[in-house]
Amino acid sequence: MIQWFRQSLLRQVFSGYLLFGSVIIGVGLVMNGIVRQQLMREFQASDQALGQAIAVQTDSRLQNARDSLVALAALDPEIFTASAYPAMENAFKAFKAARPDIDRVYWIDQLGHMQVSVPYDIRTLGTDFSEERIFLRASQADTPFINGGSVDLTTFNAVAIIAIPIRDQQNQFVGILATNVLLADFSQPLNLIVNQPSQQAQGLRLSMLDDRGMLIASQERERLLQPIGSEIPGVEAALQGQPTSQLGLDLQQQQWLYSSVPVPSVGWVVIVQRPASAVFQVVNRFSTWLLVVALLFAGGGWLFWLFLVRHMIHPLHHLATSYQLVEPAVNRPTTSHLSVRHDEVGTLARSLQRLDQDISKRLSELQILLETSNAVVGTLDPQTVIDTITHEVQRLVDSQAVVVLVPDDHGALRVLASTGRSKAYDQTVSVQPNDPLSPSATALRQGQPVQMLADSGEYFPASIAHQGFRALLAIPIISHHVGNVVVMVYRTNAQAFDANDLKLLLMFANYATLAWEHAVLYERSDVRLQAVAHENEQLYLAATHEKQTLAAIIDSMRDGLILAGVDDRLLVANPRARTLLALGDGAIDQLSLTEIYQRLRQQTVDQAQYDRGFAQAQTRQPQVWLLETVNDTNTTVFEIHHFHVGDQQQLIGYGLVLRDITHEHEVEQFKTTLLAAVGHELRTPLAAIKGNASTLLQDDIDWPLAEQRHFLTTISSEADRLASMVTNLLDISRFEAGLLPLQRAWYQLDQLIAAGIQRLARPIPRLELDLPTPTPAIFVDAARFEVVIRNLVANGLAYGEGFIQIQARCEQQHLIVQVRDDGPGIANHDLPYVFQRFYRAHHGIQRRSGGTGLGLAICKAFIEAHGGKIWGENDAAGTTIVLRIPIAGNTG
Question: GO: which molecular function terms (predicted)?
């Protein structure tokens, strides 16, 4: 039975077919499971290694930024005080300029308010961080720490915060020095890895989470700063410092391999994920083929016999007969038991032994070529590529020297890299491209290798022969993008490079060409990227300077400026506008332009008048109306100007200017009141002067001397009254212009009071003086001070019943003088205004006396010109006017 089985290859093959099919399917199933597990472990290891590399790089960048911030904090402890904020800002600017990866650096004081920021924004400067996580954490910490992802409201960039709590020598917390690191810089290396063609084909995704599970780095920019930690399996363990890899489903129910690697110093996590279909692609394909093979075995068994006889046995017999004339060169031990067989397999085995030897030789050569090519293309540095080419060429073929020539700026070929030759000789080599005898120039012109032998009877360069070389080969590396290169290979024996050597070197030259082009283009692109980055930095600095200049101009405006977008929300409000509207730094984000109008309406004295002005302004251009407000004792008038912001094609927002025209309004009122008062007051003296003068000039009456004297006295008195009125107006104008002259000297107080009373138009019925002894001397303008005393006593006589009391006392370096009358007093709501020009109280003057309302205004001007102060008081006995002036003439 066994003999019968051995004599027929057909029976052996058919039986083996059945056994082989069963074994293959069984082994395939086992291998499928093993390969699946192996692939899973390899991808897990690969992904965790990639995640670990990214985590190390991220940790290094964060540590570098933190160390830089620590160095900044250690510069000068005195800089972290409120008085050193300008110096702090200069230090921050230098720090920011030195680190382009820093988005912003700022200082938060011990109360949680941001006081210094580079760059800064008026909207966020002064922001209260006392309830924020960073402040609460820093106030309890002693060392620097890194906070997770957030949006900076000054630059509107996604950032990570690095903060250092600052403490004084008594270990008291004085504030926080913090900087923001751009999260976009963490996404850039992830994008470079993911966008590689090999990774794109596998669907690789990279992301990074902070310690709260927020996405802080990813190629999906729209999902940044979103909480996705619960969506990824294994993240909780990674946040605890344990790397994990496991399969899981995403939101679309697709299976992924998730590998999570912690960034140890900050508690972040690097996530590497790839589709499970990419991981098990080979296994799935193998399973499919295994199923197909099983079906073929099961369904095609009944055809196998005919197919085997017709398509296998006869062809094998023919092949065995054909290869019987080929004798084996070497018997391989592993196949010797087959070569002794007498059937077709034995004949085929002997033939295949010889074929295997040839294939082994070719595979060995290809293996060397592959290793050499990998070594060349494994770098992007041009000089490293050239050095690798020279080294690998020597390893590829039997050679003693290799030289790489490149054209210089004038086209001459010069040595770029060399091994096995004299450096002094290489420095003198200069080959013209049109040299007909140079092998390198000839190879470059013809675009194909050139070989020369010293003993062949043909031309061989003498300079090469003098160095001991007897064979050379010039191989051109043609590049249409970065310039051509020639590789020269030398041998010391006169042995020509055979066809196999040429084939290997030409194949290697193709790889070297690609590597050379990639390296040079990468170097050029890197230089260009650096130039572009510098240009972008200059543009950014210019834009920042323009923005800061514009912000400084807006902030320095004396008028209030408010800008709003087309959606009516406020965008800009300068400090003057914030003061007028009582807006805080953070209130601008919650207000609209309509609400600003409502605030203005609430502040106005007459809301109905404001509504009329607002309605009229909407119907004309420009849109301007007035707003009058009262604060304590001051009345303020604003001119409101509403305008549109944009060009002829597009409206981009609205603007509002609040201009304080109180002074102009007061000037207009002063002119109107002055004309009315002067016109009224001039009538009486002018009428008296005119009447008395006309009476004296009558020709039909001979007036007695006494009557004439009475008429002339009246004319003189009324003329003095006019002169006094003009003098008062001139003195007030000079005081307001800052031109009021003072002729100061030392005078006794009692003498000044007596001189002032002596010039009164009428005597004082009851006068009471209460002066200190000895009477103090004061440094004043006597004429101005006498006018003050005279006006105050005259007012007391006009309002009261004839009693005047003058008291004086010294307080430190000041003299206090009180003038009291026994009149009805001044209403409390009139007291703040009686010293204003033309203001007349409702008690006394209107009922008992005329006047322009300038007396007390003149007193106020003269006393303030001396550096003093004047005010009024009411009591049960009448009105008291109090003066407070420096004794020695100081203005304190």
Answer: kinase activity
